Structures are given as C-alpha cells and as structure tokens.
Amino acid sequence: MDNPNDHAPRGCVGIFIHNGQGCILVGDRLQKTVVEGVPEVAIPGGKIDFMEKAVDAAVRESREETGLEIEIERMVGYSDDIWRHLGAHCLTLFFQARVIGGTLTVTEPDKFARLRWERPEDIKVLFADAHLLFPNLRLP
After folding, report:
1. Quick check: 61 and 13 in contact, CB under 8 A?
2. Structural domains in the chain?
3. Cβ contact 64:107 at 8 Å
4. Those residues with Cβ within 8 angstroms of residue 33's Cβ, 6 or more apart along the chain or in another chain
5. What is the pLDDT of residue 37?
C-alpha cells in the first residue's frame, strides 16, 4: 500500500549487514541521492510498506536487494533526511544484521552496480560520522 499521506515523512530502513569478520555489505548506487556525478556508496535498505513492521521491512529489503537472508541483531540508530531536490523526506531506522542464508547477488541492477564486503574504515564517506549517528553499531 502507498503512504496514505503524501505530505508525511516516509518510513525507511537501512541495514548494516556484516559478515562476522569486521566487514559490512555495501553497494555502488546508480541513482544518487546527494550529488550527481559523485560515486555514492550505500548500504541495503528501502521503504517500509504501509502496515509493515520496520524489522520485517529490513529482512525483506535485504532479500530483495542482495539475495541474502538475514537476522536482525539490533537497531543502531536513525536519520531524518530531507532531499528537497528529489521531493523526498525519509525517517530511516538503521539495523545491524548477520547473514543466515542465501547467495549474494545484485538482484536489483537498476539500484546497485555491484555489491561488496568492505571494512568500515575503508569507506570514509559512509562512516565519517558513524560513531555519532550509529552509537550502537558493533561489528564482530
């Protein structure tokens, strides 16, 4: 179902999927949310459907975008993002999760050019303020 109130912020999820070895899954986004022409690295995630719980949306989005089945470990933070140039406003809940099955695959090639495992310190753009935004993120 669509959001019944188009003028309200949209509920979204972002998932820090880890591999148990200190790396998280990131992808090279094709559609930019910040600056066109600047490579954008993002974690899997998306919109929460109407009447869907956020944790269920995180599991669904992971499966849809990556082919991986995950188990949510904890909520690690949130963001309140307004992209005026896109006419979008999302309140995003971020979760930490571990892989419990599936095969890593780019299942939405219109969203991600590729998916890969990276150490957080190697992705400065995504994690520059991670200690402030995601205080509960603890990768094994």
Report:
1. yes
2. 16-133 (3.90.79.10)
3. yes
4. 40, 81, 83, 86
5. 56
